[in-house]
Design brief:
The protein is of the alpha/beta class and 324 residues long. Helices cover 43% and strands 18% of the residues. It has 14 helices and 10 strands. An 8-stranded parallel β-barrel has the order 1-2-3-4-5-6-8-9, surrounded by 5 helices. Helix 7 packs parallel to helix 9, helix 11 packs parallel to helix 12 and helix 12 runs parallel beside helix 14. The longest helix is centred in the last third of the chain and has 19 residues. Bound molecules: (3S,4R)-3-hydroxy-2-oxopiperidin-4-yl beta-D-xylopyranoside. (3S,4R)-3-hydroxy-2-oxopiperidin-4-yl beta-D-xylopyranoside binds next to loops.
């Protein structure tokens, strides 16, 4: 008998387990769709809800690819995690090719969020409202939105999202902030200030794009704890663990321990709600494009076969009490 898929282990524990999904293999490769549907209870569109693809001209939205993912998820009993309403990357040229006066930039941002979060109101359960707004030193990252609007663009975005999608969980999402460090200190200050000002922020996403060096789990645990102390839900949103290619039995075993350590550390937190990887098969991972010479970062290999990392995730869920 084959072991139960991940989603069957996650559901009784009240957890989301998921992956990002790309619309092309979803439409063209049956093993891709079948594996997603079998293993996961939530998906995040990898690119199709970013500004560039979904808002190609100022007066035009293109929901077609994102809608296809949402329909697939609905038909498969999966939730959808939206990504993302404000980011400095993958923006359309019409937006970034000129500087906007503050009031006009605010109007553009509000319109976009009303249109996109509004289109999916009631169907998207959680949104990465603001992605990667903090720099490594803990200050606000220099982005077009910061230039045009100033620091309050973050609050404006969360308020607009709450209006357009009143039932969605609204998250702040970032990378390199897993451990307690200058960057996670900056995120902590940002979210504390937002909450004190009454801005609706419900959770934090730790991307967890890791290397074979992993993450200091003791520091990660302390960091999770302080964000939970703000009353936030905790999510791992984009985990992958990139390896120098070719991967070896040793590097795959080490990778499995990193996946295990992260999930185990999260499961110890009552506010932990969801664990997602950035893709699920090594066949379609952003890593080899972004980090040449590295890859094999996900729990399934390029033939959709489970790797040691997959077994580690399964064992970890099995070991966690069913009523968390
Ligand atoms: C990546 C996608 O995986 C790639 O296909 C795309 O070319 C670039 O963006 N952090 C994020 C994601 O929040 O949106 C990024 O996704 C990976 C890093």
């Amino acid at each position: 008998m084959s072991p139960p898929p991940l989603r069957e282990l996650a559901a009784p524990r009240g957890l989301w387990i998921g992956a990002c999904v790309a619309s092309t293999p979803l439409a063209t490769e049956s093993a891709y769709a079948e594996t997603l549907r079998r293993e996961f209870n939530v998906v995040t569109p990898e690119n199709d809800m970013k500004w560039g693809p979904i808002h190609p001209a100022r007066d035009r939205y293109d929901f077609s690819r994102a809608d296809a993912i949402v329909s697939f998820a609905a038909a498969s009993g999966m939730a959808v995690h939206g990504h993302t309403l404000v980011w400095h990357n993958q923006n359309p040229a019409w937006l970034t090719s000129s500087a906007w006066p503050r009031e006009e930039a605010i109007a553009i941002l509000r319109e976009h969020i009303a249109a996109v979060a509004g289109h999916y109101a009631g169907t998207i359960a959680a949104w990465d409202v603001v992605n990667e707004a903090i720099a490594n030193d803990g200050s606000l990252r220099q982005t077009p939105w910061l230039d045009w609007i100033g620091p309050d663009y973050v609050a404006i975005a969360f308020r607009a999202a709450a209006e357009a999608a009143p039932r969605a969980k609204l998250l702040y999402n970032d990378y390199g902030a897993e451990a307690a460090n200058a960057k996670s200190d900056g995120i902590y200050r940002l979210i504390s200030d937002l909450l004190h000002a009454g801005v609706p922020v419900h959770g934090i996403g730790f991307q967890c794009h890791l290397t074979i060096d992993g993450v200091d789990l003791e520091s990660f645990a302390r960091n999770l704890q302080r964000f939970a102390g703000l009353g936030l839900e905790l999510y791992v949103t984009e985990m992958d663990v990139r390896l120098p290619l070719p991967a070896t039995a040793n590097s795959l075993a080490r990778q499995a321990e990193i996946y295990r350590g992260v999930l185990e550390t999260c499961l110890a937190q009552p506010a932990f709600r969801g664990f997602q990887t950035w893709g699920f098969t090594d066949k379609y991972s952003w890593i080899p494009h972004r980090f040449p010479g590295q890859g094999a970062a996900l729990p399934l290999d390029e033939h959709y076969r489970p790797k040691p990392a997959y077994d580690a995730l399964r064992e970890c869920l099995l070991a966690s009490p069913a009523a968390r």
